[in-house]
Structure formats: structure tokens, C-alpha cells
Specification:
The chain is α+β, with helices and mostly antiparallel strands. It is 71% helix and 8% strand. The protein contains 22 helices and ten strands. It has a five-stranded antiparallel sheet. Helix 2 packs antiparallel against helix 7 and helix 15 packs antiparallel against helix 16. It starts with a helix and ends with a helix.
């Protein structure tokens, strides 16, 4: 899609230049052909769908005529029919609208068919007449005939600009009509199958018929536009071939130059006479305006209604403006004609190589500046024309005002006529004249550029010490057996080598896109091919660069030892990761978009590079891991074979709960969740008698493409808490039960000796 857009953009940009002047640049045939091919491909892709839709409708002339009469009868009986069908006001209005649109479409289709046949015949006559004009141009291959041929190419190109935009819009309309027909057909099939409640099937059938008829209308319009477009493309190609053939035998003799200058001089003499007459007419118009201003009063200017005096003042002012504009235009045309005479003299000198290098440079620069000035003048003329047209609208509105006298209205019509003459006799002449002058200036510029040779370019830059600059670039840096390395060769080698990096990247990425588009290859495999091809191309371009500047590899032999040491120590890890990367790519333990866990990091694989792999964690951070990590550590691939993942949810209930009821409730909850897969089926297990609760475990599967495990488990917990609360099932918190008993100290039996000692001690105690 991007390629088509770029081709169309370049083509239309080149052709749009023709719309702002006469001839600008000659359009390359490749641009026109590319656009033609793209449009043909678009039409071919739609052809099958169009045929399928049009197969459902009879487009013969007899059926179209009969259908028009039938719709007229349906329209007459529509009120009674809709009353029987039970249509409400809105449905009635919609049905009548569809009947009207379908009738108009049928009439348009019938007219378009007849007009299309006439257009084909007319197009054939135009092509034949163009062939005759080409032969006439070929009989006199002088520079005037070449200019006429270039103008013809410009004219056809400007037509192609409009045709391309118009054809693209009609193609877009055709696609829209196809989509509308497909949508209506689908709705009708669903209604017939009972899958939808279509309230107005009769109206819907008419809408489908109208949509298919619009497809037929759009197809004919696209076909006719494409036929005209192809004819113009062939015409441009034929004219371009004629121009190429004419260039080889082109001549510009002195007689042609004299004839062109004489023709312009005759026009200058005619304009001079016209200028003198215009000056007299302007003096007369100014005198009449002064007399009208003299009889005007303040009442005439402030009155809300137009007076005769003020209307006369407007008419006389418009007359003065006309002669002023015409006088200015005649003077400008005289100047343009004199400039054209000089242009022809300069073109004659360039054609016969009589101009010096300095003169050629001046002609090129002055012609470029003159073209820009003329284009600004043309834009100013168009702005002035828009302003005059607004004045014409105001005067027309005044003349059509109700209640004004016929005398005032007649005077305003005279003013209106003068304003219109400004556009037709002055501004339109300007718009026709300036493009011709622009064309001559552009031809002078193009011919001057063609005559600026390499020798003259060298002469232009000789003031900047050419010898010194060349001497520096030819400075020898080092030499060996059969070669020498200079500053220039080294710079070119470096530039080519750097360019090879971008060329290799562009070429490998182009191949990768082709593989993904045509071969439907895996993204990881395509990345592997792209990286291998990148290094191959880079090395190849580097060798080509050295060969271009004739620097052998032996010129860098002195760097071999240092590079070997660098590769052995500094680049050990780089090569380790590089080799590991290719092992990962080809062994494919995981691929892009897989969810993995390695070295403490888990997330989605975003990119598998040649030296590292980028993983986006669940927190949104990018983690870049060297490829050797995936060979040195265990990798868990959560989505290796598919995107299904088993989840576990643990639930505890109080010991006094009904376990069968709990299991039944959990089964209903987990099976009712929309994101939990039915196959494999979820499962509820009464796991254990825990310390604080009866422990249940829920096993279920989810598709990671459609849901996240965290969100699903959260939804389940919310639902379980709500259901348990409703059913009176308690979810306990951890607790312990401690049992205590009454303590009785043990009885101690004393022996006789110990008892005697106690009694003896008791006697000794004071009373």
C-alpha cells in the first residue's frame, strides 16, 4: 500500500506542475505507466466481486425499462401497500425514499449506457484525429513544431491529472457500493434464517437492488474513465516517441528565427495601435465619469435606494476600470512580446553553440527568476479575477433587487456588462498569454542547462584553486607492491563502505518483508535470514568498495595483528553472544511474542537480535539480555506450544461448612466465567483438612491471547466472596484452639525421721 501511495504521490506531484502554468517539465513515461498499472490492478481485484453482485440482477435494456414502469406502479400503490404491511410513519418515509432512489438509479443507468456508447465512438474519432496531427507535426521538424508538440504533451498531461483524481474517486465509490451491497445481502440472509429481527424486509430488498444498481453505475463510469485514461496515456507515449524522433532531426535555421521575430513584431505594431485607441477611450470614459460625479449630490450617496445618478456613477466607474485594465494589459503584452523576441534570439544562440559559458549561466539564472515572477503575476491575475467576480455578483444582486426602476436597472446592467468585459477581454487574455511566456522562458532555461557542459563547470570552479584542491586529494598516504593509497581513494572507500551499511540494511529488510508477505514465514525465521543476509551483504559491499578504489586487502595487513589481539580479548563476549544468538534463532526454544521466564526476568519476547534479546516485563520495562544467558540458564516458555495456561486458585472454608455444597458452588462459579476455557474443563478438588479451614483447590485453563491470569483470578475471588456471603459460608482466618485443665499438686509422703525433725523444730519456735 505504501509503494502505491509513493508512486501516485510522485506522479501527481510531477503532473500538478502543469496545472499552474503552461509547460513545466516533461513527465517521464514511467510515472504514467506505473499509475496505469496500479489502477488496472485495482480494477482487476474488484472484478470478481463485481461480477458476483451483478449476477443477481438483470441489467438488460428490456428489463430496465420494464422495471422503471413497475416502480412507477409501486410508487402509486405504496400508501395502500404500506398500510397493509403495518409500516409506521418512519418506515413509510424510508420506503418511499428507497423507491425514489431506485427509480432515479434505473433512469441514470439507462442514460449512462446510451451515453457510454456515444463516448466510445467519440473517443475513437479523437484518437484518429490525433494521429493526423502527429503526422502533420512530423512533416516540419523545426523548433516551432517541437514547441507545439511539447504544448500538446502538456495539455494531455493536465487532462490526466484530473482523470487520475476523478478515476480514484470513482474507484472509491465503487468499493463503497460493493461494501454496501455485501452488508445488505448479509442482513437479508440473516433475516431469512431467523437470526435477526428485520422489520422492513420489502424495503430492504429494494435497498439491495439499488445498491447493486449503483455498483453497475460505478462500474460503467470507471470503465469509461479508464478507457479515456488509457487513450490519453497511449497518446502521451506516442507524442513522446514523436518528440524523441523529432529531436534527432531538429533544425533551427535563420529563416525560422526571422519569421518568429517578425511575427512578434507584427503583433507589437497591432498592440501599439490598440494601445493608442485604448488611451483615447480611457480619456473619454474619465471625462464622462467626471461629469457624472459633478451632478451627484450627498443625497445620491447616502440614499438607501439606488438613484439614477448613483447608478450612472457605478456604470461610468466600471467603464473607466475596464479601459484602465485593458490599457495595462496591452502594455504588458507589448513587453512580453519584446521579451519573447529576445528569448528566440537567445535560443538561437544556444542551439547553434554561439553562447559563451558565462552567457549560458546568466541565461539560466535569469530565466529561472523570470519564470518565478511570471507565476506570481499569474497568481495575482487569478486573485484579481476572483475579486471582479465578487463585484459582478453584487452588481447582479442590485440589478435584481425588487422595487428599483427600470431606468436604474438598465444602467446597472451596463455596469454589469463592463465588469464582465474586464474578465473576458482582459483577465482571460492575461491567463492565456502569461503561460505562453512562461513556456518560452522554461524552454530557454532547459536548453541553457543542456548546454552547460562539464568543461564549463570546471571553468566555473577554477577560481577556487582547483590545482590546490586536487593536489590535496592526490596526496599519497602509503604504498605497497602494485598499489598506492591516496586521500581521495581512502575517502571514496570510506564513503562506499559506510553506504554499504545502509544498502545492506535496506536490502536485507526488503528481503525480510518479501519473505513475510509471500512465504508466510515465521517472524523469527525471517529475522534470522535478514541478519545473515545483512552481514553477507556488508562484507560483499566492503570488498566491492576496496575494489572500486583499487585498494587490495594487503594494504591493511599491518592492522591484522592488532585486530587479532582485539578480537581475542575485547570481542570475546561479542562473538559469544553472536553465536549464541544464531543458536537461539535456529533451535527456536522461544519466538517473538512468546511469554518466557529466564534469569529472574519474565515477560513477552519483543525482539530476538543477533547479540541480545529484548523482553518487555509485566511492569512495562524493557529488559535486554545477552543471548548466552539463554544457553547458560533454564528458560521457561509459558506459550511455547500454545497460548493456553493452567491456573490454580486456593479457597478455604470453615469446618462447619457443607463440603459438597461448597464444591458445587465453586464449580458453578468457575464454569460460568466467560474467559475460562471449557476444554480442558475446570476442576474443583477438596484438597485437605487444614489447620484453620477446609482447603479447596480450583484448577482452570485460560487463553493468554484473550485474558490475563491475574484479572481472571481476581474476578473469581470477587465472585466467590459474593456467593459465599450470600450462602452463609464462612471463609475463616487462621486460628488456634487451646484447651486447659485444673491443676492438683502431687501428695508427698514424709518418712518418720523427717517428720520428727519437723516437730522438733516446731517446739523450738517461740510462741
Amino acid at each position: 500500500m505504501l509503494k502505491k501511495f509513493l508512486i501516485a504521490l510522485v506522479f501527481l506531484t510531477a503532473l500538478t506542475n502543469f496545472a499552474h502554468g503552461a509547460e513545466t517539465q516533461e513527465v517521464a513515461t514511467d510515472y504514467v505507466t506505473n499509475i496505469q498499472n496500479e489502477i488496472s490492478n485495482d480494477i482487476s481485484r474488484l472484478r470478481k466481486t463485481i461480477n458476483e453482485e451483478l449476477a443477481e440482477i438483470d441489467l438488460s435494456k428490456e428489463n430496465i425499462d420494464a422495471r422503471i414502469l413497475e416502480l412507477a406502479n409501486l410508487t402509486e400503490s405504496a400508501s395502500d401497500d404500506m398500510a397493509i404491511w403495518g409500516y409506521n410513519d418512519e418506515q413509510r418515509e424510508n420506503h418511499l425514499r428507497v423507491l425514489s432512489e431506485l427509480s432515479l438509479s434505473l433512469v441514470s443507468y439507462s442514460s449512462l449506457i446510451q451515453g457510454s456508447r456515444q463516448g466510445i465512438e467519440t473517443a475513437g474519432l479523437d484518437i484518429k484525429s490525433q494521429d493526423v496531427s502527429d503526422l502533420a507535426a512530423m512533416t516540419s521538424p523545426d523548433i516551432n513544431a517541437q514547441d507545439d508538440l511539447r504544448r500538446e504533451i502538456s495539455k494531455v498531461s493536465r487532462g490526466i491529472v484530473t482523470q487520475v483524481f476523478y478515476l480514484q474517486s470513482k474507484l472509491s465509490k465503487l468499493r463503497s457500493n460493493l461494501d454496501e451491497a455485501a452488508k445488505l445481502k448479509k442482513q437479508l440472509k440473516e433475516a431469512e434464517a431467523g437470526d435477526t429481527g428485520l422489520k422492513t424486509p420489502r424495503t430492504h430488498i429494494l435497498e439491495l437492488e439499488n445498491a447493486r444498481l449503483n455498483v453497475a453505475l460505478s462500474q460503467i463510469q470507471v470503465r469509461d474513465l479508464k478507457r479515456t485514461f488509457d487513450a490519453n496515456v497511449d497518446n502521451i507515449k506516442r507524442l513522446r516517441r514523436r518528440l524523441e524522433n523529432m529531436t534527432s532531426i531538429l533544425r533551427f535555421p535563420q529563416e525560422v528565427l526571422d519569421a518568429n521575430i517578425e511575427k512578434l513584431q507584427t503583433r507589437i505594431n497591432e498592440l501599439t495601435e490598440e494601445l493608442n485607441k485604448a488611451r483615447k477611450s480611457l480619456d473619454s470614459a474619465n471625462l464622462a465619469l467626471a461629469r457624472t460625479r459633478a451632478v451627484m449630490t450627498s443625497k445620491d450617496e447616502t440614499s438607501q435606494e439606488l438613484t439614477v445618478n448613483y447608478a450612472n456613477f457605478q456604470a461610468r466607474s466600471a467603464r473607466v476600470n475596464y479601459w484602465e485594465y485593458l490599457l495595462s494589459f496591452i502594455e504588458e503584452e507589448i513587453n512580453y512580446s519584446r521579451e519573447a523576441q529576445q528569448i528566440w534570439r537567445d535560443r538561437f544562440k544556444l542551439f547553434h553553440d554561439k553562447a559563451t559559458g558565462e552567457e549560458i549561466w546568466k541565461l539560466r539564472d535569469s530565466s529561472e527568476k523570470q519564470v518565478q515572477d511570471l507565476q506570481r503575476q499569474l497568481e495575482g491575475i487569478r486573485s484579481l479575477e476572483a475579486s471582479i467576480l465578487r463585484q459582478i455578483e453584487n452588481t447582479q444582486a442590485q440589478a435584481n433587487t425588487e422595487g428599483i426602476s427600470s431606468n436604474v436597472q438598465q444602467i446597472l446592467l451596463q455596469a454589469l456588462d463592463n465588469q464582465r468585459k474586464i474578465v473576458s477581454d482582459v483577465l482571460n487574455r492575461y491567463e492565456a498569454l502569461i503561460p505562453n511566456v512562461i513556456f518560452l522562458e522554461q524552454r530557454l532555461n532547459a536548453e541553457a542547462n543542456d548546454n552547460i557542459s562539464a568543461l564549463r563547470v570546471v571553468e566555473k570552479v577554477s577560481n577556487f584553486s582547483r590545482e590546490t584542491v586536487l593536489g590535496f586529494f592526490n596526496t599519497q598516504l602509503w604504498e605497497g607492491e602494485g598499489y598506492s593509497v591516496t586521500v581521495w581513494r581512502l575517502i571514496v572507500a570510506i564513503l562506499v563502505f559506510l553506504s554499504s551499511f545502509f544498502l545492506s540494511s535496506w536490502g536485507s529488510n526488503l528481503l525480510k518483508r518479501r519473505i513475510l508477505k509471500r512465504a508466510n514465514a515465521n517472524v523469527t525465521a525471517a529475522n534470522a535470514v535478514q541478519r545473515i543476509l545483512f552481514y553477507i551483504l556488508w562484507v560483499a559491499f566492503a570488498l566491492i568498495a576496496l575494489n572500486i578504489v583499487e585498494i587490495p586487502l594487503t594494504a591493511f595487513a599491518f592492522m591484522g595483528g592488532a585486530m587479532a589481539v582485539g578480537l581475542g580479548f575485547g570481542m570475546q563476549n561479542i562473538f559469544n553472544n553472536l553465536i549464541s544468538g544464531f543458536i537461539v534463532i535456529f533451535s527456536r526454544p522461544f519466538k517473538v511474542n512468546d511469554i518466557i521466564q529466564v534469569a529472574g526476568a519474565s515477560g513477552k519476547v519483543e525482539d530476538i537480535g543477533s547479540r541480545s534479546t529484548r523482553i518487555k516485563t509485566w511492569d512495562g520495562f524493557d529488559v535486554v539480555l545477552p543471548n548466552r544467558y539463554f544457553l547458560e540458564n533454564s528458560v521457561t516458555n509459558w506459550t511455547g506450544s500454545d497460548m493456553k495456561k493452567r491456573e490454580l486458585l486456593k479457597v478455604g472454608v470453615a469446618y462447619n461448612s457443607d463440603t459438597r455444597k461448597v464444591e458445587e458452588l465453586l464449580n458453578d462459579i468457575v464454569k460460568g466465567h466467560s474467559k475460562i476455557l471449557k476444554d480442558p474443563a475446570p476442576m474443583v478438588i477438596f484438597k485437605n483438612f487444614g489447620e484453620s479451614a477446609l482447603e479447596f483447590e480450583i484448577y482452570y485453563w485460560i487463553d493468554l491471547k484473550q485474558a490475563a491470569g491475574i484479572k481472571v483470578s481476581s474476578d473469581l475471588r470477587h465472585h466467590i466472596a459474593s456467593v459465599f456471603n450470600r450462602e452463609g459460608i464462612e471463609i475463616p482466618f487462621p486460628q488456634r484452639v487451646v484447651h486447659t485443665r485444673n491443676y492438683e499438686p502431687p501428695k508427698i509422703e514424709e518418712d518418720e525421721n523427717q517428720k520428727a525433725d519437723v516437730e522438733e523444730e516446731a517446739v523450738k519456735l517461740p510462741k
